[in-house]
């Protein structure tokens, strides 16, 4: 089925601008070759577009730029002393005051680190750490709390894979090592490392 005259007239602008799909453009060209009215529409549209794209066709007045800027400034900038300027200043000040007030409320403070493992490190971790694939912790080689077959891994890779340091054997690397009461083994602490 070919392209109709109506379809040519609807898509002639896209054709002249080169925005039609290749198959649509071929159909339009084939129709225009056999239809003198559509050929005249395509050629006329092409000529008009060519003329208006030529900047020499209609030179712009030298005062155009300043006139446009003046009109935009009149529409955009509020008159001096208007209520909008004061409203913006007061709204900004109110938002800032609420932010500062809410930060000072004791119950609204940002909590500190919740576990020793989330504290910043005191020292750099050893390059190689050991872990049990079924667990969630990484250890030094001599850790007595590591159970099962240990696998050696680069410490950066262990962290990337989601493992966290054992708070018992890595205590010297943590900023706030756990107290001695926290370092007693329990079945819940070692569940992920193969259990007891």
Short description:
The protein is 43% helix and 7% strand. The protein is of the alpha+beta class and 196 residues long. The chain has a four-stranded mixed beta sheet with strand order 3-1-2-4.
What does this structure look like?
With 196 residues, the chain is of the alpha+beta class. Among the domains are: 5-53, no CATH class; 116-193, 3-Layer(aba) Sandwich (DNA Methylphosphotriester Repair Domain). It contains six helices and four strands. It has helices at residues 5-16, 22-34, 36-53, 64-76, 83-104, 155-160; strands at 128-131, 137-139, 151-154, 164-165. A four-stranded mixed beta sheet has the order 3-1-2-4. It is elongated, with a radius of gyration of 37 Å. The chain starts with a helix and ends in a 31-residue tail after the last strand. Mean pLDDT is 76; it is low at 180-196.
Short key terms for the protein model shown above:
196 residues, alpha+beta, DNA Methylphosphotriester Repair Domain, 4-stranded mixed β-sheet, 43% helix, disordered C terminus
How would you summarize the topology of this molecule?
Layout: H1 5-16, H2 22-34, H3 36-53, H4 64-76, H5 83-104, E1 128-131, E2 137-139, E3 151-154, H6 155-160, E4 164-165
Parallel strand pairs: 2-4
Antiparallel strand pairs: 1-2, 1-3
Helix pairs in contact: 1-2, 1-3, 2-3
């Amino acid at each position: 089925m070919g392209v109709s005259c109506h379809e040519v007239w609807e898509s002639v602008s896209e054709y002249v601008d080169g925005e039609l799909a290749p198959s649509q453009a071929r159909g339009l060209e084939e129709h225009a070759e056999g239809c003198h009215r559509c050929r005249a529409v395509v050629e006329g549209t092409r000529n008009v577009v060519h003329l208006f794209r030529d900047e020499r066709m209609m030179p712009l007045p030298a005062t155009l730029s300043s006139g446009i800027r003046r009109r935009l400034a009149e529409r955009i900038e509020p008159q001096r002393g208007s209520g909008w300027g004061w409203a913006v200043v007061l709204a900004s000040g109110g938002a800032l005051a609420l932010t500062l007030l809410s930060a000072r409320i004791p119950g609204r403070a940002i909590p500190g680190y919740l576990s020793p493992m989330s504290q910043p490190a005191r020292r750099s971790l050893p390059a190689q750490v050991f872990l049990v694939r079924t667990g969630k912790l990484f250890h030094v080689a001599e850790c007595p709390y590591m159970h099962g077959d240990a696998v050696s891994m680069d410490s950066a890779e262990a962290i990337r894979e989601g493992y966290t340091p054992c708070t018992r054997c890595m205590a010297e690397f943590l900023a706030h090592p756990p107290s001695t009461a926290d370092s007693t083994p329990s079945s819940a602490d070692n569940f992920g490392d193969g259990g007891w």
